[in-house]
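request received
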Amino acid sequence: MKDKSLSNHVKDYYQVQKLTPEKLENLLAQTSERRSAQAETETHSQVVTIKRKWFLQRNYAIAASVLFCFIAMYQFIYVNPLSPEQIGLRVAQEIALNHNKQLAVEFVGNNLTYLRNEMHKLDFSLVASKKMAQANFTIAGARYCSIQGQLAAQIKLIDKQGRRYTLYQTHLSDTLQSLPATEYIVNGVPIEQWREQDVFFGLANTAS
Amino acid sequence: MTQQQSSADLAELLQQGFRYALSFTHERASAEDILQDAWLSVLNAKGPIEKAYLFTSIRSRFFNQNKREKLVPMIPIDDHAEYVDNQIEEHSINFFSDSAEIEQALKCLRPIEREAFFLAAVEGYTAQEIADLTSQPRGTVLSLIHRARKKMQSYFKTTSSEVLP
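response:
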């Protein structure tokens, strides 16, 4: 030992200094406990994070669904308007409904000139249809009604056999402009639609 | 070191930390207390357990527990030039023979002198590494080591002359 340097002696002195086994064991046990607790906390925080993510994703999904519904409704209502055939059918249904109500006439008269003068609320002039010229209908009277939200004239007609008809005339709007001349049978009521000049015509027949 | 440190690694690190704490306190019980506090602090940091971090933690705990002004009086850097970087004088010491004498000699040193000497002689740190660890100028570290050596040599000379008339 006498040959050793001072630093070697100091080194030897410190090298033999050690924690007691109990103390060392205690510190290592604390280490394990602390690490377990930290791992548990990390797991818990991971679970919380996952839950939070799930809630966020769910909320995003709900928001996306609502947005999608709005867009779909917008598309359905505004962007994808009804086809002319669908509109024609709706008009036919409206005509059949009005026809079946068989409401009393407001203006009693047997000629179109009289009705034209009386029904001054109309934004168009009643027209004598060329298509119906040879049918020899007798006019029984007329009343106001509406087709597709616009004011129309509902004219009651009777043919030679005494069968009752209802003729509808309204201004030819952009929507009605596109309708082809077609025939429908709605609720057993035969309905014929056509256009003449700037007027839309619809004829419902009770007899058949 | 990584998170997957084995028990053996941790045990060795704890022993090194204990010796380092002992170099400050020169008393087992308080060294254990400081190590305990520092170890918990390192564990709470949640990262890998680094030796440098443990040593820094031990050091700051020692100085926090004791008044720095009282235990670490400032000394002028006057004679550190006598010391060559990382070259602890290797004079043969013939004046002592057992660890009890070494312990007494170390007791004569101030804590920061013991710390510097410990890091150089036991841990094998260079003066620059000690300076980095302790946040002191390298010159101060050299001076501390030199003074520690002188004090210990002086102690052994004194005891030797008492024993051998």
